[in-house]
Amino acid sequence: MLYKYYGGLQAEMIKIATIAGSDASGGAGLEADLKTFEEYGLYGMAAVTVIAAMDPDADWAHSVFPIEENCLRSQMETVFKGAGVAAAKSGMLGSFYAVDLTAEYIKAYGVKNYILDPVMVCKGAKEALNPELNAAIAEKLLPLAEVVTPNLFEAEQLSGLDEIASIDRMKEAAKIIYDKGPRGVFIKGGAKLVSLAPVSREAHPKAVDIFYDGGGFELFEAELVQTKWNHGAGCTVSAAIAAGLARGLPARDALALAKKFITASLKAGFPLNQWVGPGNPAVWRAAFE
Ligand code: PXL
Fold first, then answer.
1. Where are the domains of the chain?
2. Which of the four pLDDT bands, split at 50, 70 and 90, describes residue 122?
């Protein structure tokens, strides 16, 4: 297990929570988060915002069922008042009240290590984007985030820039997003980034993400894993960053470790069925056993 990396299980468990949707197929959402927390040797909790289900008789079409407000508030009480956390992340929120409750509890309980994964649409989903909800996420949650982890599409939505396809554009977007209040911006170019100008992508087959914290840009590069089986990769990365911060790592170290973690997970991705395949966050434990 990854916790062996840190010298074993500690007497007092470090607690961490995800505020996210359940992905009934198990690869993304809170399922990915909890699996990741487990690999970091942390005690994971979850406040469920929505349940996402997929229809095998309709080409794996996604349906998203929001959890009602009272139920979400009760879960927030359980997690934040009842237990407390060293770090928290949020993923798919799916409603305005979930955005408001997340802001309320992160503020009320002074959660410093809050990672915002601004999930706006899930892969393969046909659901319409909700620009008002994205605006509420930007306005109410960005200022609370230690690190926000948009992919290229989400970075476009949060920055207002279109066609972020190069490192230079990612840097521009990171600055704009940073000015909206988070203490760090981690844009995931991953396998999707089309240009690595001035070098060509073929000459430099890397998955490139960037981090900006107002001080300077840092590029995070890892082996480009060419796979279709990457469902839940975004959730896993942000969960791993939150887990690293819960462990007391500085942000840049947490990012570097998260990048190694997701690369290993993606290399072990597998087909769940003909539509989708998740990474496997459990694979890296082999390196520590
Ligand atoms: O990968 C984004 C995502 C996040 N959260 C939930 C999901 C998905 C995609 O399927 O189902 C619950």
1. 13-272
2. low
- Does residue 234 have its Cβ closer than 6 Å to ligand 1? yes
Specify which residues 145 forms β-bridges with: none
Closest C-alpha to 208, from 231, 191, 230: 191
Atom in ligand 1 nearest the alpha carbon of residue 124: 10
Residue 153 alpha carbon to ligand 1 centre in Å: 15
Residue nearest to atom 2 of ligand 1 (CA): 122
Name the architecture of domain 13-272. 3-Layer(aba) Sandwich (3.40)
Among protein residues, the one with the nearest Cα to ligand 1's atom 11 is 23
Interval between CA 65 and ligand 1 midpoint (Å): 12
* Tens digits of residue pLDDT in 53-80: 999 999 999 999 999 999 999 999 999 9
21: nearest Cα among 109, 142, 121: 121
List the single range of 144-153, 158-167, 188-197, 274-283 with lowest mean pLDDT. Answer: 188-197
For 95, the token pair is: 């409603």
Amino acid (1-letter code) at residue 255: L
Kindly report whether the global pTM for this prediction surpasses the value 0.90: yes
Alpha carbon separation from 169 to 10, 134, 152, 163 (Å, rounded): 43, 21, 10, 8
231 C-alpha to center of ligand 1: Å? 8
